[in-house]
Amino acid sequence: MLGNEAFARGAYEGGVEVAAGYPGTPSTEILEFLSRYREVHSRWCPNEKVAFEVAAGAAIGGKRALATMKHVGLNVASDALMTLAYTGVNAGFVAIVADDPGMHSSQNEQDTRNYAFFAKVPCLEPANPAEAREFVRLAFTISEMFDTPVLVRSTTRVSHSRGVVEEGERESVPTRRYEKRAEKFVMIPAFARERRKVLEERLKALEQWVEETPLNRIELRDRKMGIITGGVLYEYLREVAPEVSVLKLGVSFPLPRRKIREFASEVAELLVLEELDPVWEREIKAMGIPVKGREVFPGIGEITPDVLIGCLFPEKKRDFADLSHLLIPRPPTLCAGCPHRGVFKVLHDLKAVVCGDIGCYTLSTLPPLAALDTRP
Ligand code: SF4
């Protein structure tokens, strides 16, 4: 199953009734797959903030709800996220946000885990399609257990790789009763001050839970080196260095501090392998634990198995020939019959300054059209 299909399957099995999203690679197929389930009311929205708020409204009203978007979409929806973190949700609310390390189809390389730290909401990070299904399903339970929105971070390689996924039955989740409670759901300053305290109390409870959850697990092998990692990098690491000890983080935030200390005490050298920002590295260093991250692994671009081998075993010889120089470059281009081709051709010929938008319009940037000048 494709990772994004597995995300949809997990949401379906988790009893989601309302799903809203805004398309953007690598997240788009989640909602497309989910729309095939008749039990789920799925819809595209004009932007990510609307999608987030449609889903949040459904959750507050008592139905499990999902929002989907790519990483830059969470910037648009962040206003709603920050307030929903205060109000809590009633029924389960999950937002799946797909990052794009290497910027295969994005304008930047931002790391969604920063938003989890910023909003103080839990963030789960599956490593493969099977976990994508399992983690999303579980995310609804966590959301209701702690009355919080939950982020699920994907990356291009989790969303767009295929793996074996075992399907389960759809949970029958009764609608939660909606109660008019302005002190919980209307964030005027007097109420927000109280909810601010609730947010911190919830975080303490989450920090307890995160130490116990099997989503974070220690795999002790050779004690010479221990690596803390998560997401698809866990899969790569197991492939290229099966002998190293690993602390696999299935929860990106909050961090299991006790478990990290325990793991650090078991290994001679501690590394942290993460894509993209040194989010965990900063936290672990702030705990006073000596750890190497950026000194060993790159902070820019995708960390592929090849890159990982180069970082961990620079002396290791590649056992396959690099034929990439033989490939004919195929930059993305407007479809052959695209009606925008003519428009961009005229704009190009007029030497007009063209300020563009996201999506296909950017495909007019390169020659021969060379039309677009700016695109925020
Ligand atoms: S707008 Fe995009 S998808 Fe539609 S025809 Fe043009 S290039 Fe193709």
TrEMBL record:
The keyword Oxidoreductase applies. One of its GO terms (molecular function) is metal ion binding. Pfam families: POR_N. InterPro entries: HACL1-like (IPR045025), Pyrv_Fd/Flavodoxin_OxRdtase_N (IPR002880), THDP-binding (IPR029061). Residues 10-181 form the Pyruvate flavodoxin/ferredoxin oxidoreductase pyrimidine binding domain. Keywords: Metal-binding, Oxidoreductase, Pyruvate. This is Indolepyruvate ferredoxin oxidoreductase subunit alpha. It comes from Candidatus Caldatribacterium saccharofermentans.
